[in-house]
């Protein structure tokens, strides 16, 4: 107690207390002698108490620090060990102010008296540890300044900071009434340990940079471009392409090996990957500059697999990435890092394949699958459009021709397909369960059911996603580019981005099936209507095979007059479309953004697509985006002519499509919020030079 009496804390606490007791005693005596003097003295006492409380509140930090010094003075051995501890260590109060620190901490932080921890380490959160948590770990960077001769330099240090909340009452004796305990019992302390991880991070980065990237490079249109050039120049063309590919890989100290006539295998260190990204895979543009008399450009598909636990995993990732690159039309690069996928390039329209070999192979495989299953369920995307239903009707006919029971899943008959569906239902030649809803589809779908998904390859966009888990025999027929959310493990996938529509693909399949099913005129009308809508009256994404498919449908009885009647719309729909166009906003002088509300409107997404197409007729507009609100979702229809790759923009929102025709869906956002998201995304992509 003798030591404690000599401390500043005892003097601070005890003297005012004794003075207060004496004054109170005197005041009581004065009440018996002179009431006026007693009242005056009582006022003085109250003022004295208030003054002492103010002094106490302002000196609280000093008192706490004094308590800590007193505590450490009681154990000189512990104090010495903490001072010499090689790990930087500091004690903080609840507000992050440094109360005490050891020598190792002072070496990195300098004189820290009276400073908060955040003043020294800017990226340490002010709320160091939440009140309901006793332990927290942070990773920080610290720019330490030092002198090298006459120059002042900075060194970046990396620390793992472990912080522990200390409650004094947890380790103090309940009977301990010392001033230290009394002062600290209501003030938690925070012990902070700083573990230097600079070398560890350096070695981790070196290890990361030395990991091998496994890559594949394919020439997309090898056969087509050789057929397009004189025989004497073919070897020279391939030699020039070969040299450019080798130079591209040699610039990153990699190794390239030609495995087939149009395929290359490459390996290089991961530290060079950032360099390739910065150049945005310049080889994709360089390869197009080769011109030895060829009328079409040569294009490449590139895929890199990174961060696999083994070389085999990285190679498999590269193969999966190549499937995506080819499924998206080629002329692009894909980097696959586990589940994360990045896309680069893809700014050229997909070239139409002139060969019919693939269509024949897919038609034969589909026929075998149909013959092996008793039931066939055909499913499109939510709010199906004419292309989706037209393709489904064509496959329905194929199933019937092979003696199979087929069904088309459709929950809502929108105005865009109503005329088509009504004609089919009224014909009397189809079963009543030709069209079924989700509940009926779930009841009849089992392991022995063939599920055909048309006009969509994104699992979340299908009419009934649960069906994908009820059978393992899934077939995908689609003309939209693949993305990372594609339906997993289909037994047959025919995804061709070059095609104008899914109806075009189905028309080709029907021609190459051995049984040669005969379409009913109304079925031919449905498929022709689907092609008409998706090509915007044969203006967008049409090729030789598009018109050959249309000719096939015409031979099967397609009536253009009836098809035109199917496409007619009400005056109200026309007014809604006109209003959306008139209120469209022009952004950055090159993008048009319009909105329309789908409440009370039949087939709002179809109207949105029509508005997108019409906005492109405005001079100077390079891309259009129409936002349609339907059932707490915002559907985005994106269109362009050739300047802007809208598919890359829509992929920012989890959507996809083609270079000039794409779409996406946003959930739980309003039209205004969606519009702002589009604005910010366009601004960001434009600043990066991606659009």
From TrEMBL:
Keywords: Membrane, Transmembrane, Transmembrane helix. Residues 609-683 form the DHHA1 domain. This is DHH family phosphoesterase. The chain crosses the membrane at residues 12-32, 38-56. InterPro entries: DDH_dom, DHH_sf, DHHA1_dom, GdpP/PdeA, Oligoribo/pAp-PDE_c-di-AMP_PDE, PAS-like_dom_sf. The keyword Nuclease does not apply. Residues 375-531 form the DDH domain.
């Amino acid at each position: 107690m003798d030591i404690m009496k000599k401390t500043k804390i005892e003097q601070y606490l005890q003297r005012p207390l004794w003075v207060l007791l004496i004054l109170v005693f005197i005041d009581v005596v004065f009440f018996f002698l002179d009431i006026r003097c007693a009242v005056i003295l009582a006022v003085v006492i109250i003022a004295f108490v208030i003054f002492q409380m103010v002094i106490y509140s302002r000196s609280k930090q000093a008192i706490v620090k004094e308590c800590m010094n007193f505590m450490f003075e009681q154990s000189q051995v512990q104090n010495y060990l903490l001072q010499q501890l090689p790990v930087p260590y500091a004690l903080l109060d609840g507000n992050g102010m440094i109360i005490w620190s050891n020598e190792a901490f002072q070496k990195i932080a300098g004189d820290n008296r009276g400073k908060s921890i955040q003043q020294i380490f800017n990226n340490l959160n002010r709320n160091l540890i939440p009140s309901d948590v006793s332990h927290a770990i942070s990773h920080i960077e610290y720019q330490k300044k030092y002198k090298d001769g006459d120059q002042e330099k900075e060194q970046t240090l990396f620390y793992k900071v472990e912080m522990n909340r200390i409650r004094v009452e947890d380790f103090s004796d309940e009977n301990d009434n010392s001033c230290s305990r009394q002062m600290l019992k209501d003030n938690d302390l925070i012990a902070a340990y700083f573990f230097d991880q600079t070398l560890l991070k350096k070695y981790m980065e070196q290890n990361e940079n030395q990991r091998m990237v496994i890559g594949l490079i394919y020439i997309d249109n090898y056969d087509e471009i050789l057929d397009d050039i004189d025989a004497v120049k073919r070897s020279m063309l391939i030699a020039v392409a070969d040299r450019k590919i080798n130079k591209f890989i040699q610039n990153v100290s990699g190794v390239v090996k030609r495995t087939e006539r149009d395929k290359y295998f490459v390996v290089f260190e991961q530290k060079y990957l950032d360099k390739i990204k910065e150049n945005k895979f310049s080889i994709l543009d360089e390869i197009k500059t080769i011109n030895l008399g060829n009328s079409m450009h040569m294009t490449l598909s590139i895929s890199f697999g990174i961060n696999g636990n083994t070389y085999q995993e990285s190679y498999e990732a590269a193969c999966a990435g190549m499937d995506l690159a080819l499924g998206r039309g080629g002329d692009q690069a894909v980097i696959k890092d586990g589940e994360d996928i990045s896309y680069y390039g893809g700014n050229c329209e997909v070239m139409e394949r002139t060969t019919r070999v693939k269509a024949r192979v897919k038609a034969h495989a589909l026929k075998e699958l149909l013959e092996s299953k008793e039931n066939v369920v055909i499913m499109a995307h939510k709010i199906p459009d004419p292309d989706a239903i037209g393709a489904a009707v064509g496959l329905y006919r194929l199933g019937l021709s092979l003696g199979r029971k087929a069904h088309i899943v459709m929950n809502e008959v929108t105005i865009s397909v109503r005329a088509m569906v009504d004609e089919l239902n009224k014909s009397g030649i189809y079963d009543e369960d030709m069209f079924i809803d989700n509940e009926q589809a779930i009841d009849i779908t089992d392991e022995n059911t063939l599920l055909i998904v048309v006009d969509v390859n994104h699992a979340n966009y299908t009419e009934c996603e649960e069906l994908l888990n009820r059978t393992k025999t899934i077939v995908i027929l689609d003309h939209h580019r693949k993305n990372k959310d594609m339906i997993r493990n289909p037994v047959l996938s025919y995804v061709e981005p070059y095609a104008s529509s899914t109806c075009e693909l189905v028309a080709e399949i029907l021609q190459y099936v051995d049984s040669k099913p005969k379409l009913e005129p109304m079925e031919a009308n449905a498929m022709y209507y689907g092609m008409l809508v998706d090509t915007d009256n044969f203006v967008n994404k049409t090729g030789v095979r598009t018109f050959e498919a249309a000719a096939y449908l015409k031979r099967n009885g397609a009536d253009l007059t009836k098809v035109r009647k199917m496409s007619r719309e009400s005056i109200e729909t026309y007014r809604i479309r006109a209003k959306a166009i008139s209120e469209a906003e022009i952004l950055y002088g090159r993008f048009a953004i319009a909105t329309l509300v789908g409440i009370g409107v039949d087939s709002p997404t179809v109207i949105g697509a029509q508005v997108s197409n019409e906005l492109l007729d405005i001079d100077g507009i390079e891309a259009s985006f129409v936002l349609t609100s339907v059932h707490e979702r915002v559907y985005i229809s994106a269109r362009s002519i050739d300047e802007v790759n809208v598919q890359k923009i829509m992929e920012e929102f989890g959507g996809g499509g083609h270079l000039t025709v794409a779409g996406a869906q946003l959930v739980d956002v309003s039209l205004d919020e969606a519009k702002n998201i589009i604005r910010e995304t366009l601004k960001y992509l434009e600043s990066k030079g991606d659009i």
